[in-house]
TrEMBL record:
Transmembrane domains' residue ranges: none
Region (Disordered): 169-195
Coiled-coil ranges per UniProt: none
Pfam families per UniProt: PEX11 (PF05648)
Keywords, in A-Z order: Membrane, Peroxisome, Peroxisome biogenesis
UniProt biased composition (Basic and acidic residues): 181-195
Protein name per UniProt: Peroxisomal biogenesis factor 11
Lineage of source species: Eukaryota, Fungi, Dikarya, Ascomycota, Pezizomycotina
Domain of life of the source: Eukaryota
Keyword Membrane: yes
PANTHER family, A to Z: MICROBODY (PEROXISOME) PROLIFERATION PROTEIN PEROXIN 11B (EUROFUNG) (PTHR12652:SF23), PEROXISOMAL BIOGENESIS FACTOR 11 (PTHR12652)
Length: 264
């Protein structure tokens, strides 16, 4: 029942819903890119039917993309605000500057998506930039996405390095609770310190897991804009596979976030 409640909360959460739609979109892309997968879903279909299914999946993929854009309509405002908050901070380390670059780039990327949303709908008479200009804007915005993800990867590496540097002062499992000639008070103090150290190490381990998951997601996600701007040479099928994988990892993070909210 707890899993069901969490799934309902996940499906009604904007972030979780957007991840679900992205998963469906990535699945459509995979089926289009790899005909063998499509043949597995419809094994007895003729070539004509397979072609029709492919066209239908392409249309569905486009509709899912539009739906996701509506969900992210004003998310860029929050991202830009996060970048501005970092910028006005007094102390600016390398990590902070990278955060400013990441948030600003991703915020501007989201803003370009919002600006071209009406054109993406393809409604005659309501286009703002026109098909050619809107495609050009989307193409140029991939550089912003790439830069934002690259900065995010560097931030994760810096944080992981800092966590590794704050490793165990001593192994709590090998801490001597009582020594020869030690008083009862000293023994209790030693046990308390060992428990605190164990808890600290558990917190570090949990933070590392989150950072590694984010690092893997960003490192693979960067293939999408990297391929679009020509910096990475991969096939459309590999792009779809990368999108599918990172949707699972980022969706997992959203799932955990929703679960934590339910526990409060």
């Amino acid at each position: 029942m707890a899993v069901y409640e969490q799934f309902v909360a996940f499906g009604t959460d904007l972030g979780g819903l957007e991840r679900l739609l992205r998963l469906f979109q990535a699945t459509c892309s995979l089926l289009i890119a790899y005909p063998l997968l499509l043949a597995t879903v419809w094994p007895n279909a003729s070539q004509a039917v397979q072609t029709t299914k492919t066209l239908g999946l392409a249309t569905m993929r486009g509709q899912l993309n539009v739906s996701r854009r509506f969900i992210r309509l004003f998310r860029f405002l929050d991202t830009l605000q996060s970048g501005w908050t970092l910028y006005v901070a007094e102390d600016k380390s390398l990590e902070v500057w990278l955060g400013i670059i990441s948030k600003t780039s991703l915020g501007l990327f989201g803003m370009t998506e919002t600006l071209t949303l009406v054109d993406l709908l393809g409604i005659p008479g309501l286009q703002v930039f026109g098909p050619l200009r809107s495609k050009e804007i989307d193409a140029q915005s991939q550089y912003l996405w790439f830069g934002g993800l690259a900065a995010s990867v560097l931030i994760s590496l810096i944080k992981l390095n800092r966590l590794n540097a704050s490793g165990p002062v001593q192994d709590p499992t090998k801490t001597t609770v009582s020594e020869k000639g030690a008083t009862k008070e000293a023994s209790e103090k030693s046990a308390t310190e060992a428990e605190k150290e164990k808890q600290r190490l558990q917190e570090i381990s949990a933070k590392k897991a989150v950072l590694i998951r984010g690092l893997v997601s960003d490192s693979i996600d960067i293939l999408l804009p990297g391929s679009a701007i020509g910096l990475v040479k991969i096939t459309s099928g590999q792009v779809s596979a990368a999108m599918f994988f990172t949707t699972l990892t980022t969706g997992w993070a959203a799932w955990d976030r929703v679960g934590e909210k339910l526990q409060k």
